[in-house]
Amino acid sequence: MDDGGNRKKLLLMGRSGSGKSSMRSIIFSNYSAFDTRRLGVTMDVEHSHLRFLGNMTLNLWDCGGQDVFMENYFSKQKDHIFQMVQVLIHVFDVESQEVMKDIEIFTRALRQLRKYSPDAKIFVLLHKMDLVQLDKREELFRLMMKKLKETSADYGFPDLVGFATSIWDESLYRAWSQIVCSLIPNMSVHQSNLKKLKQVMDAYEIILFEKTTCLVICSSNDPGSATTTTTTTSAPTSTTIDKLDPKRFEKISSIMKNYKESCTKLKSGFKNLVLNDNIYVSELSSNMVCFIVLNNSNESHQLVSENIKKASQFFE
Amino acid sequence: MSLENTDSKAMVLLMGLRRCGKSSICKVVFHNMQPLDTLYLESTSNPTMEHFSTLIDLAVMELPGQLNYFEPNYDSAELFKSVGALVYVIDSQDEYMNAVTNLAMIIEYAYKVNPSINIEVLIHKVDGLSEDFKVDAQRDIMQRTGEELLELGLDGVQVSFYLTSIFDHSIYEAFSRIVQKLIPELSFLENMLDNLIQHSKIEKAFLFDINSKIYVSTDSNPVDIQTYEVCAEFVDVTIDLFDLYKATQNLISDGNEQPKKRELKNVSQLANGVVIYLRQMIRGLALVALIRPNDTDTENCLTVVDYNIDVFKKGLEKIWANSTTDAAKVAAIDNGDNA
């Protein structure tokens, strides 16, 4: 079904100007949100092959959204485009004037998917949310999702997941880390290993990041896997964690990414970081970074790094 | 009396024609505003003050550009007497002939009132200029200012020029230099830092003000702007990460029944062995150092660094204790005069 088992095809669709290429550049090419202004129109389909977690290759098909190309996708190239798709990421511009037309294109994509790859997962992103007033965002998102859920259920994709995103805050990282996590096969293994590690180290919280993109893979305080069906309302998990910022994963993602970026000025990559003897950020394996918050800040330095070294073999 | 008060406090006066970017500079440097958001700033109508205390207490006063300071009702003499540095902002993307004339007038006046004033000129908004243009603009402005001053018979006045933009770190760099001129203890600090880096394999050390990311002092090695940027960003990383888990740290200290205030410490190692090291010092200052352990063991190297920095911190505390007693003395004399 998926050739080689580890090659994943992701379709990134949406109408022209909705911000597809900007997202891709920020998450996978280290652009800053400001830099994305320089991006031009995507001609036809732009392919990128991204290695993720070592053995997984993401084939991201960034489909240019101008009507000419769109027509082409649904007619001439339909079997080429819609075959063997693992994930469809459809992007909606919340500022769009032609909402009905946006939805129509979405349904046309769904129709092709039902025919060519009925097992595909569907994600929708309501993008450019920063342009909507704060108090209106929630309602707009709810209305739009209701409509889109109905549409997608009609085409045999009942469990649609949606996110409100913007390139100017952390919501983009949240959405993408959930999308990418849905593709990781041995998620439950990572999850249980992480729980054990947390116990061994007497840690308050451990978060696992992918190394190059800094996307969150999983965290020790997450009861389910990251592929939850809940959407924007982030569910606080246990009582002790309640006090923490629910957006902390995304924030750490973007902080770490900025830091890595600034490390390149010294012509080097990031290796580890110890803050106040209590937060440890370290490479766990060749493609994962762990972020550990200890309960006890008097732990010996060597003990912790030894533990991390020992743990790394379980996360290869 | 009010004069004496401001004397113990270094004051920086920010001036320039309208729309040259004074408020934007203030917001970006002292309020962590995103440079792009400054597009929407209103025109400033009243003088505004920013206070921040690092090793010295610093006040930055911003004057509206459209004001005429030579109107008799405005007490500009008093104002110029009390400031340590006059920062004049020139918009390099605009026609700057007027600005240069205005600058010369202000310098003439300020110098007459207060000959010990430092005069600093920011050639601002250079982000829009190409490399050649920058150099041309700087030379042109320097030359014209020189001529204007010569005409006024003030050719002995020292004027420093900086090329700045809020979209990169040049504005922080310029402000750092300006603030450093106002710190009387600077030479001691520099010596201390020199001593520190010599004995602990440190390549470069900065003493940062955490809030503004202005560096109060650095060792005598030349400042490489990239190193500065990395160190300034490291301050951000440290504070952001610390803030995320601050709640847990309070919780933990409550459990131990000793809510001691922890000082920030952050050590990060890069793949090529370089270590970036941050330690909180006194009064919102942080020491950020770039360490190259080369062939020696990193752990050992860090232990030595830790020890040396402890010594350095004690030194800082001593300097600070002395400078506060000085200020207290001034205040005491001041009160005595009044009584």
TrEMBL record, chain A:
It comes from the Eukaryota. One of its GO terms (molecular function) is GTP binding. One of its GO terms (biological process) is phosphate ion transport. Component of the GSE complex. It holds the Pfam family Gtr1_RagA. SUPFAM superfamilies: P-loop containing nucleoside triphosphate hydrolases. GTPase involved in activation of the TORC1 signaling pathway, which promotes growth and represses autophagy in nutrient-rich conditions. Keywords: GTP-binding, Nucleotide-binding. This is GTP-binding protein. One of its GO terms (cellular component) is chromosome, telomeric region. Belongs to the GTR/RAG GTP-binding protein family. It comes from Candida glabrata (strain ATCC 2001 / BCRC 20586 / JCM 3761 / NBRC 0622 / NRRL Y-65 / CBS 138).
Automatic annotation (TrEMBL), chain B:
The keyword Glycosyltransferase does not apply. The keyword Transferase does not apply. GO terms for molecular function: GTP binding; GTPase activity. GO terms for biological process: cellular response to amino acid stimulus; cellular response to nitrogen starvation; cellular response to oxidative stress; endocytic recycling; microautophagy; negative regulation of autophagy; positive regulation of TORC1 signaling; positive regulation of transcription by RNA polymerase II. Transmembrane segments: none annotated. It catalyses: GTP + H2O = GDP + phosphate + H(+). It is found in: Endomembrane system. Keywords: GTP-binding, Hydrolase, Membrane, Nucleotide-binding. SUPFAM superfamilies: P-loop containing nucleoside triphosphate hydrolases. One of its GO terms (cellular component) is chromatin. Its main location: membrane. Belongs to the GTR/RAG GTP-binding protein family. PANTHER family: GH16429P, RAS-RELATED GTP BINDING RAG/GTR YEAST. Component of the GSE complex. GTPase involved in activation of the TORC1 signaling pathway, which promotes growth and represses autophagy in nutrient-rich conditions. This is GTP-binding protein. It comes from Candida glabrata. The lineage of its organism: Eukaryota, Fungi, Dikarya, Ascomycota, Saccharomycotina.
